């Protein structure tokens, strides 16, 4: 097998030896698809298949089916694979009801799904905590079914999670202002199993394969969105993309011992603000966004006392970034530059050129260093 076939993000996932699972967003999409199918045809597909952003077509068994004159409900039990996800085994439900023509697709938070109460998230205050990618997936599946059956596709989708409010106490939702339950998450639909030792070993294997293939430029990405950004920026092959997840330190320490000419680090603004502050493990359980640090950094870019105070009390790192953007303070570039400095300090003079890209949740570059 050639190096290209063995390398890159897909090979890393395989190398961990852990079984992947499905996000709450994928489960909600499956439940919605089943419920809307029943609303249109009178029958629930079981199992129900959906198409994920990267083309996978998993099938989900239904745990709940209910069809009434008012609407249809279906439920899917989440399987997180080998990941120690707090929502593993949770029952994700979707209830679909028809709306008047022209209403479009409307999302509601049912029991166990939170509501956004503070700014700084990719959803407006007052919206159900169903994130943008799961919303898009559900809309796409509703539109496809509507087209197949000659329906208008104007529906209300209410997503709920049994015992979700209780489960949410084990998450950071409360601190982020998401109240009443869980967030419906997922950018790829797939839960990547989490094992520190396996994942770090897979990073090392990725670097080895890239070097063996003669590549001089690799990129450490925190997830699928940053991977897409790197592809767009540099047109790198799959084999050059390292799924570093939260393990920025593992990438830097291994590249220090096994250099490549160039290393790009790309990730969300909030995560890379942690690297900028000196954290090498970016997981939320082991490092947090330091608003005071961001405020101090913003001052070096021209932030006044009032703006610095608002940054310190911001709900999220993204909110701090938006405050600075509105004021013309280049906080994204400042974070990227400081993250690059931290990376270089870990490399300890190894012959590796480093650049850093900070992105927002949509993959737009908000900082370069």
What does this structure look like?
It is a single chain. The chain is of the alpha/beta class and about 375 residues long. About 40% of the residues lie in helices and about 20% in strands. The chain has 13 helices and 18 strands. Strand 14, helix 7 (about 225-235) and strand 15 (about 240-245) form a beta-alpha-beta unit. The protein is globular.
Quick overview:
The protein has 369 residues and is α/β, with parallel strands linked by helices. Helix content is 39%, strand content 20%.
Comma- or semicolon-separated keywords:
single chain; five-stranded mixed β-sheet; globular; alpha/beta; disordered N terminus; 13 helices; 20% strand; 369 residues
N-C termini distance: 37 Å
Helical segment tally? 13
Strand order of the largest sheet: 4-5-6-10-7
- Proportion of helical residues: 25-40%
Note the overall shape. Answer: globular
The largest sheet, given as strand count, sense and whether it forms a barrel, is:
5 strands, mixed
